[in-house]
Amino acid sequence: MIRRLLLGAPRDVLDPRTHHAISLVALLAWVGLGADGLSSSAYGPDEAFRALGSHGYLAVALALATALTVLVISVAYGQIIRRFPFGGGGYLVATSLLGPRAGVVSGAALLVDYVLTISVSIAGGGDAIFSFLPPGLAAWKLPVEAAAIGILLLLNLRGVKESVAVLAPIFGLFVLTHAVLVFGGIGAHLPEVPGVAREVSAGFRTGMAELGPVGLLAVFVRAYSMGAGTYTGIEAVSNGIQIMREPKVQTARRTMTYMAVSLAVTAAGILVCYLLFDVRPEPGKTMNAVLLERFAGGWRPGGIGLGAGFVVSALVAEGALLVVAAQAGFIDGPRVMANMATDSWLPHRFAQLSDRLTMQNGVLLMGAASLLTLFYTNGDLTHLVTMYSINVFVTFSLSQLAMVRHWIRTRGGGRPRGLAIHGVALVLCTSILAGTVYEKGAHGGWVTLAVTGAVIALCLLIRRHYRRVQASLARLDGILEALPTSSRGSPPDLDRTAPTAVLLVGGYGGLGVHALLTVLRVFPGHFRNFVFVSVGVVDSATMKGVEEVDRMRLDTERSLRQYLELARRLGLAACHRLEVGTEVVAVAEGLCHAIAREFPRAVFFAGKLVFERERWIQRLLHNETAYQLQRRLQFGGLNAMVMPVRVLEETAGLTPAS
Amino acid sequence: MSPARTPLRLAPPADLPGRADGVGGDLGLLVFLLGVGLVPIVGSFAGGRFGEGTVGVATVASILCLRELAAELRALVRARR
Q1: Reduced to 3 DSSP states, what percent helix, strand and coil does chain A have, rounded to the nearest 5?
Q2: How close is the nearest chain B Cα to the Cα of A655, in Å?
Q3: Do the chains contact at A654 and B61, CB–CB below 8 Å?
Q4: CA distances from A145 to A171, A340, A466 (A)
Q5: Hey, of B1, B2, B5, B8, which one would you mutate to test binding to chain A, going by the most A CBs within 10 A of its CB?
Q6: How far apart are CA B79 and CA B12, in angstroms?
Q7: Which of these, A470, A472, A460, lies nearest to A650 by C-alpha position?
């Protein structure tokens, strides 16, 4: 009851309206995924401008470089969206075009980055909002930030669309106030442009005389690298295409355009405004706060302090948008995890969907990891920002390298354009990566690389385990060759009052056939009917549209018919039952109860992998479906048996599950 | 009457095709990751500015990488036999 109240009612995966209802139009996708990029204008330009020091005249060049970088990376990701219309972003691009190892590096880097996205955004938002509150309340900052993560976690367990709709007004307020700031700020200074140009020119000449061209370039490159946080979040759209409204590719490209233009204009505009308003860092205030006070602090039309209200509104919107930006971590992090889980880099349970069609295991892990990070750093934004924005450039660089490699190997049309776009993006991304690692590495940034390394090593361990188990199961397929190829005569009719063996099977293969033969051998001549039962599981890989769900249903039915054909050849009376759903235990339980009403003397059989030595990793990587189902069926008054399928380790040729 | 033994007995096959193919690549990746993990550890001994938290996390990552490296090396040796 409480669960339903908090998370909402289950959704029907077979209803085409469900797929439409949970998808996002471009404008809402811009809110959900664009907030990450746009909110970085709250701290990216700030960091970059501070790094310029006394060379503030370079701000115009920095603004141009920032806008250009945003546009180049966005155009490059637009190409990736076109080539990978089912999403997956940096992980899928690197896996498909560079190989699985580059893929796991890219995916692990993205995961760590999304955890940091949540922590940085929440800590940044907390800093901004608590700067308006009395200092005595500062002790509540960390608990409030933790509560904010909890609320976002809950919203995302309900569903992505619900969470985005709730947060849309904050996004709207940010866009409105910052559009007024950028266009109003530049517009108000238009008459002074010639004077500012002369000052910039004079400053440039002085800088050249003091530092020389190499020194001045070094100052510029350092500031450009320190502002790398501005570019984080651009990749979010390519990772989240699956949540877009049909036609997905067009919606994603439109979302990318909204995001790129808004980010480029806001970030570059703020940098130019710093210069135009001669903004200097002030203790305890962000550069944007100082800028807003200079821009609007003096507005008092008719004696009403309208300016102060605007400043507060803009800063509150900035702080709140940072909280909204955490959404990108909650939306895309679990999606990357699901893709990696499908490829066996992570536990398969991360690809499962809840009855609300959300990736709840991924959402929970992202929430827990971001809370851990928040408490590890004590919510210190400086510490968090140092750790942030390194990893995203690992993924950016690998994605662009993958696309360059693709275009080098492709002889079709669009090759020169593709090479040019991704080549430029590759140079930009690798330069920023090198710059951020150099600048931030020794100041705490290296911890991000170490954590990413540990995640990759864990992924390798997990994949090794799954490979070993799959290889063991594949060996059972040898029995398929020993099965009779022709029928022993027509099978008897079903006798619904007779003892019935109900076998829960997956795809047609050695494991299911062994299960059938085991029942025949252990209970010779006892069962008169055999019912093959399968649950078609709709996971994140299947949840691409109603057609994909239909295809999965047909595949499952085809497997069941193969079991029926085998039973016919063995002279057994058999039928099959099929259901489709997201939570396999709940769906299978309902199906079994329906079968028990039809066949009152039914006994249910489910297989369970049993390892020679029990380890924590086996519990993590293999769900307890058979035991859970057995417990539920037995509690419901049905007879259920779990058949152990032993996985041994003694044979050489494979690594043990160490 | 002897008790019925569980008839399903799975053992990893000795000649699994393709298993050894990727071992070299995994080894390379793990050596690289180990190098990344060792930088703060070696750096702190050499008087670098790496914090305690960074060195701690890097140590955990290095141990994990070493463990995986050992497992992959064992697999490589078995595949060659």
Answers
A1: 70, 5, 20
A2: 5
A3: no
A4: 19, 29, 38
A5: B8
A6: 13
A7: A472
Taking the Cβ of residue A466 and every Cβ of chain B, the question of whether any pair is shorter than 8 Å is answered with: no
User: CA-to-CA distance for B39 and B48, rounded, in angstroms?
Assistant: 10
Token pair recorded at residue B5: 């033994």
Going by C-alpha positions, the residue among A271, A280, A620 that lies closest to residue A466 is A620
Give residue A9's pLDDT.
67
For residue B41, the distance in angstroms to the closest alpha carbon of chain A comes to: 11
A457 touches chain B (CB under 8 A): yes
pLDDT at res. A459: 93
pLDDT over 70, % of chain B: 70
**pLDDT of the residue at B8:** 42
For residues A74 and A35, give the distance between their C-alpha atoms in angstroms, rounded to a whole number: 15
**Using an 8 Å Cβ cutoff, are A124 and A318 in contact?**
no
Contact A654 B9 (CB under 8 A): no
- Cβ distance of B7 and A514 shorter than 8 Å: yes
Backbone phi, then psi, for A277, in 5-degree steps? Answer: -95, 5
Asked if A524 is an interface residue toward chain B (Cβ–Cβ < 8 A), one would say: no
Residues A293 and A398: their CA atoms lie apart, in Å, by 41
- A242-267 confidence digits (pLDDT tens): 777 777 788 888 888 888 999 999 99
Query: Chain B residues with CB inside 8 Å of A476's CB?
Result: 8, 10
Tens of pLDDT along A389-429? 788 889 899 999 999 999 998 877 788 888 999 999 999 99
pLDDT value of position B43: 87
Query: Chains A and B: how many Cβ contacts under 8 Å?
Result: 143
pLDDT, tens digit (0-9, with 9 covering 90-100), for A498-537: 999 999 988 787 778 888 888 888 898 899 999 999 988 7
Q: Which of A219-223, A352-356, A505-509 has the highest mean pLDDT?
A: A219-223
Mean pLDDT over the full length of chain A: 83
Closest C-alpha to A542, from A561, A523, A555: A555
A28 contacts A226 by C-beta, under 8 angstroms: no
Q: Between A443, A453, A517, which is nearest B33 by CB?
A: A453
Q: Are the C-beta atoms of residues A627 and A610 closer than 8 Å to each other?
A: no
Chain B, residues 18-37, CB within 8 A of chain A, namely: 19, 22, 25-26, 29-30, 33-34, 36-37
The pLDDT of A84-113, averaged and rounded, is 87
Q: Minimal Cα–Cα distance from B61 to chain A, Å?
A: 4
Contact A69, A77 (CB under 8 A): no
Nearest CA in chain B to A467: B19
Are the beta carbons of A256 and A349 closer than 8 angstroms? no
